[in-house]
Design brief:
Layout (H helix, E strand, L loop, with lengths): L8 E3 L2 H13 L4 E6 L5 H13 L2 E6 L19 H10 L4 E3 L3 H4 L18 H4 L3 H16 L3 E5 L3 H13 L5 E5 L19 H6 L1 H15 L5 H12 L4 E10 L13 E9 L2 E9 L3
Parallel strand pairs: 1-4, 2-3, 2-5, 3-4, 5-6
Antiparallel strand pairs: 7-8, 8-9
Helix pairs in contact: 6-7, 9-10
The structure holds adenosine monophosphate (AMP).
Length: 288
Amino acid sequence: MIPSRLPFEIIRDPAALRARAEDLRRDGLRIAVVPTMGYLHDGHLSLLRAARASADVVILTIFVNPTQFGPREDLSRYPRDEEGDLAKARGCGIDLAFCPEASAMYAPGYQTYIEVRELQQPMCGASRPGHFAGVATVVAKLFNLARPHVAFFGQKDYQQLAIIRRMVRDLDLGVEIVGLPIIREPDGLARSSRNVYLSPDERQTALALSAALDAAEAAVKRGERDVATIVAAAQATLARPGLRVDYVELRDADELTAIERLERPAVLALAAFVGATRLIDNRVLTVT
Ligand code: AMP
């Protein structure tokens, strides 16, 4: 058990969180926030541990944010386990958990959204219209409430991380953004709260995602620089019964713009439906 320095507290009221955060700031304490939708796994816990090591006060937020789900997505059945989450998070030494109700975050008449216009267009933004406006907006709201000096995100959600970094820069939010590596199962599957949806057969099929990244990376290591050929290597690995590709794209690592040749760092990002479950994965590919 990593010791926290303050008595542990659960806050549900947004105004109470802001008041608490203002007090902590007045006391000169460095605040870290880790935003999540709960159902915590080792990926989330890696963020909490890094936060614990870098700040005086660690705030975990657990909020299944309705505005980032499309009408046909899994909002109502998204897995939840607040009690289990709090036990795991307390094991990582968090000081405070913010677990608001949706009605407290979005009062009747709510109508303000943040759009990171270019970065939200491709990849997951193309298949999930409105998703990133929901993400950017809730993260901005969480920053305004928790008043963090630093916030931790996973590279698992690569496009999300790029969007949050850009939002912070564009809106002068003054929060340091730390992005941390993807935590995987021993067999390569990226940890995700949605993995719980997978049947044993689907769990096997889902290994194609990380295998596709391996195949693309191997092509690059053999000297391949043509983006279409690298993407095709990933696509070929994903061609399995029970798996439907949403997208596979290799784009500039910073701007997420389309490229034709791999000449500078690029991100190979993919999304696929395994049964009814949509999974994502990515890897940054570099040439040396
Ligand atoms: P979520 O609860 O899915 O919204 O994720 C909350 C945070 O945990 C986001 O910053 C994610 O990128 C991060 N995260 C989710 N899965 C992983 C993983 N496998 N490895 C590292 N970070 C992750």
